[in-house]
């Protein structure tokens, strides 16, 4: 089934959550119906933004990540009830990033412990860590974007969805996605401009 059918199905399950039926079976049915889309988002985010986690010693696979994210969503939706597919996928996106950041943080802590023991590697700040000080600063800046701009930025620039796919998830036109993405880039540029490579002197 196409993405439009997935969106319709997600909306139907979300509507059922507003009734008196026990929520867990509905949430599990919702996740089962949207699993292909969630898997694609997990695989894209992992491969494009966290490839280090796919290499030894972690060797993380997208299926493992998906399982962890599904468990996170089951727990989260006992307290949080998205009203629209847009809100549901935004919630999923947030938990994907949290899961990967947690794994990256633990991997970095393990690497730092090994460096202290072996005294043979450079400091973590220059070790290629996913969560270097600059990377942590970037994530914080993304988190502080306005909600609409952050949502589009995460979908397009972090998860690698197309403008059309992001527009379908968010419920706006591709042109609106582009405008929000442009605003996000301008805001991030203002906050992180000092991280740009220095331009060579004209002379």
In terms of per-residue confidence, which ranges show pLDDT below 50 for 5 or more consecutive residues? 124-130
- Helix coverage percent of residues? 55-70%
Taken in chain order, the helices and strands follow as HHHHHHHHH
Shape, per Cα inertia axes: globular
Layout of secondary structure:
Layout (H helix, E strand, L loop, with lengths): L2 H14 L6 H11 L1 H15 L12 H15 L8 H34 L14 H11 L3 H12 L4 H8 L3 H19 L11
Helix pairs in contact: 1-2, 3-4, 3-5, 4-5, 6-9, 7-8, 7-9, 8-9
Describe this structure in words.
The chain has 203 residues and is mostly helical. The protein contains nine helices and no strands. It has helices at 3-16, 23-33, 35-49, 62-76, 85-118, 133-143, 147-158, 163-170, 174-192. α7 (147-158) runs antiparallel to α8. The longest helix has 34 residues, at 85-118. The radius of gyration is 19 Å and the shape is globular.
């Amino acid at each position: 089934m196409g993405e439009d059918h997935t969106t319709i199905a997600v909306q139907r399950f979300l509507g059922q959550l507003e009734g008196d039926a026990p929520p867990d079976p509905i949430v599990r049915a919702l996740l089962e119906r949207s699993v292909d889309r969630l898997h694609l988002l997990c695989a894209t985010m992992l491969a494009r933004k966290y490839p280090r986690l796919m290499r030894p010693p972690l060797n993380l696979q997208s299926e493992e990540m998906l399982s962890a994210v599904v468990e996170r969503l089951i727990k989260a939706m006992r307290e949080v009830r998205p009203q629209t597919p847009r809100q549901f996928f935004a919630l999923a996106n947030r938990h994907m990033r949290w899961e990967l950041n947690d794994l990256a943080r633990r991997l970095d802590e393990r690497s730092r412990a090994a460096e202290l023991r072996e005294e043979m590697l450079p400091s973590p700040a220059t070790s290629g860590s996913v969560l270097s000080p600059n990377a942590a600063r970037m994530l914080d800046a993304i988190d502080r974007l306005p909600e609409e701009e952050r949502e589009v930025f995460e979908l397009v620039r972090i998860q690698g969805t197309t403008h059309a796919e992001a527009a379908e998830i968010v419920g706006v036109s591709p042109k609106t996605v582009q405008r929000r993405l442009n605003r996000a880039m301008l805001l991030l540029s203002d906050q992180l401009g000092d991280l740009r490579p220095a331009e060579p002197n004209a002379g």
